[in-house]
Amino acid sequence: MRDFTLDTARGRFGGLRNDGVLSKNDGGGLPLLALHGWLDNAASFRPMASALSAYDLVALDMPGHGRSFHYPADAEYSMFSTILDVLAAADALGWTRFGLLGHSMGGAIASVLAAAAPERVENLYLIEALGPLSGAEDTTASRLRDAVAQRRTLDGKRKRVFNDPEIAVLARMQTNITALDETCSRLLIERGIRPVEGGFEWSSDARLTLPTAVRMSETQIRDCLRAIACPVSLLVADPTPPYFTPALRDSRVACVPRIRSVSLAGSHHLHMTHPVEVVAALGL
Question: Residues with Cβ < 8 Å from 250, sequence gap 6 or more?
Fold first, then answer.
């Protein structure tokens, strides 16, 4: 995959592209837009790229991540804003309809986007997510208070600067939701840090580490899932992550009209550690 930049009405994206076959008539796949997980970046999809050579695979650094634009100081990241960002990227690529490949946070965004703009999404391929994390309605006020307090505390703070990229590699291995091996960590760190005076700092926007101010209820999420019109392939790791229990997964799967759900032994980043198997399991 090669580095590229994409200018949109909402900002400049960084990303990776494999320039695969564009035309379905020539036996190639649809344009495929890949959305990575929280605090990851486009390099998350490098291991899968060779197995997706028939596609025009575009892996974006999501806003606030990797080498993509950050929101202005007076703006906040939200699910709705990110959906508009992804659609702006598809518009800039000239893609009317496309496939969406999403991992974790990227899968959550892709799920809601497919419900919000069904005319744009041809197929949905999800890894370790089907809809976003939900929030109980009776925790709304406490969540808002926490988000406001932490956002105000963040203002004026400087990011940590470290003098050796190896520190970032080790830190990335230790702070993931599940164990991330050294090889995968190095891939992500390549786009996950940037040089500054005195060393390096994380390239991601510090606001992304703050608690989400407002979450959909489970009822709202299921309403979105019922609105997904395209075929969906869902892949979950075995064992499942704590935030996506089998009971929650099955209840959400039951909402989607056209879905196949499969599991594969592995960790949360199994698309990086077992890319060929993941491509086959998703039916790509």
Answer: none
